[in-house]
Amino acid sequence: MTFRVWAPAASRVRVRTQGAEHEMTAGGGGWWFSDVPAPPGADYAFLLGEDGTALPDPRSSWQPQGVHGPSRVYDHAAFPWTDQSWTGRALPGAVIYELHIGTFTPGGTFDSAIDRLDHLVDLGVTFVEVLPVNSFDGTDGWGYDGVLWGAVHEPYGGPDGFKRFVDACHARGLAVVLDVVYNHLGPSGAYLDRFGPYFAGQNDWGPGLNLDGEGSDEVRRYVLDNALGWLRDFHVDALRLDAVHALSDRRATHLLEELAVATESLSAAVRRPLTLIAESDLNDPRLVTAREGGGYGLQAQWCDDLHHALHVALSGETSGYYADFGAPGALATTLRQAFFHAGTWSSFRERTHGRPVDRSRLPGHRFLIYLQNHDQIGNRATGDRLSASVSPGRLACGAAIVFCSPYTPMIFMGEEWAASTPWQFFASFPDPELAEAVRTGRRREFARHGWGEAEVPDPMDPATVERSQLDWSEPGRAGHREVLELYRALIALRRSRPELSDPWLDRFAVRSQGSCLVLDRGPLRLVCNFGPDGADLGEPAGSVVLSWGGATAGHVPPDTFVLIDTAG
């Protein structure tokens, strides 16, 4: 096979494989090549300079010995796919389920996750979003400290394991979203800078990529090829792009737009929809505006403003970035326009923030709405879910708003049955100094917010991972079973009543009425009571489609909701 690696400043490059070292030949643009007999399964590594250390391939597809070990030759064409009839899914009308492979099941592997996919089908989910599966140092972690972006984490099952998972999802009609991280690299095993000018500065999480400086053409190509590889070689249907606001790119054509163009071309070639979903803190609708309209052309973005407004309404918590969302009418305002901060003052940032969404042009399905996600749970000191502090009635109201809104709903694993298990921050770096630095940093961070050190779980303790695993006996228990039945009913309604999946924001009405929040979706009216007293709606108009906690068409007790068909 032909080994190739980009190392523009190297004076000499060798490839070591099957017990021998082979000289590589310099080609154009800083690339080095060598034709060496190496079958699939052969280990290899690159040596830079005269006395270079053996390093894994930056474009490795397989790292069975971890991020510091040699790469292994992998043949993508050898996998026996069975999804030839899969035509994909478009995002409009979708219901997304976010999960972490390592804690979704006690087994913590792709194969054990496959055993639970029928639960998602029964729930009504259409897209499964998987937290990052790229290689990171250690066995357990969230996946956001990856350093070899094209190699699947071996403890989960490696590249074949991930392909089995995707294939099994497609067999059940489930599309797969993969979370990818291009804004930084993790603290252990990030060898890219030894090969070339990959890095440019630091952000809050680690070294950032050189996207616009000298040598950045090949760095950008590295990102594009990685993204397209997941979509093409692993048959993934969508990518969730982590924290794109941390991508530093001053070029006239932003990397995100370049990725959107390349993805659209690949979509035409493979003849199935391919979707890009950004996580962005910018509140900038240009990300999800079509390129014809002057935007970047991404299909959707996470919308934390919608989460924050819902979280405050349900929990009453107004510290930190939740402060502005405690304003009167904040929930109705945010539901109406997607962004609460839309060129308005943000007290958390101490400046104006965001830009308005054109409600007549941008459909709601381009914004994801959720009560919980991995960040909003896991980045709390104890990883506590909403169900740990919010009544079942309030949770039910929140779920009703999510699934009756014009936005794309997303569920975090276990939310659908009000899981009692937390989801905490964890890692497993083998380097004791790095492990202690992460442990100490985590405790100091929360100490500034009034938490005692003993209250913050040790991220390096295997017990932290075990606590974060879902308890699959809960869905059948009282108190959890009823919440699961509600989620199934809400998703089924969203699928059966086109008014609920209608994405057009200018046809969506929401208002505060006393202690109640009222959503009008055509003839359907959702009334949620967040106040301490019951709310009388007057003469019943129409028929009850769904209710919770004893609410009727004429009366809604506290922490209950009713969905009424005013035409029926």
UniProtKB/TrEMBL annotation:
Its EC number is 3.2.1.141. It catalyses: hydrolysis of (1->4)-alpha-D-glucosidic linkage in 4-alpha-D-[(1->4)-alpha-D-glucanosyl]n trehalose to yield trehalose and (1->4)-alpha-D-glucan. Pfam families: Alpha-amylase, DUF3459. Pathway: Glycan biosynthesis; trehalose biosynthesis. Keywords: Carbohydrate metabolism, Cytoplasm, Glycosidase, Hydrolase. It is found in: Cytoplasm. Its main location: cytoplasm. It is an enzyme of class 3 (hydrolase). InterPro entries: DUF3459, GH, GH13_cat_dom, Ig-like_fold, Ig_E-set, Trehalose_TreZ, Trehalose_TreZ_E-set_sf. GO terms for molecular function: 4-alpha-D-(1->4)-alpha-D-glucanotrehalose trehalohydrolase activity. Residues 98-448 form the Glycosyl hydrolase family 13 catalytic domain. The keyword Cytoplasm applies. It comes from the Bacteria. Belongs to the glycosyl hydrolase 13 family. This is Malto-oligosyltrehalose trehalohydrolase. It comes from Amycolatopsis viridis. The lineage of its organism: Bacteria, Bacillati, Actinomycetota, Actinomycetes, Pseudonocardiales.
